[in-house]
Write a structure and sequence with these properties.
109 residues, three-stranded mixed β-sheet
Length: 109
Amino acid sequence: MANVRHLETTVQRVVTEILRNDVKDDLGFLTITGVKITNELSFMYVYYSVYGTEDDVKRSKEALKRANGYIKNQIAHRVKMRKVPVLVFKIDETYEHGKRIDDLINSIK
């Protein structure tokens, strides 16, 4: 379990470096917020948030989809893993969820 947590932290750092330095596509104002690797090392979920409009989010999502294979290949070269899991990018909606809750609380006051 501790090894998986360490691996998640390492992958998050590596993906951030890859997106910042290597991916030439326009990702917009994108932040990697976390990585979750399943215990059987089948899937690697990379959570991200995008600051901007819905169009910005859509453009970033498409750019990540296009770069998925390249990013996975780079992870394989930079991180020691027996096998590289399937890479899945997921939008992190915790900020929006928290904002909705905050708005609901403020509407009650």
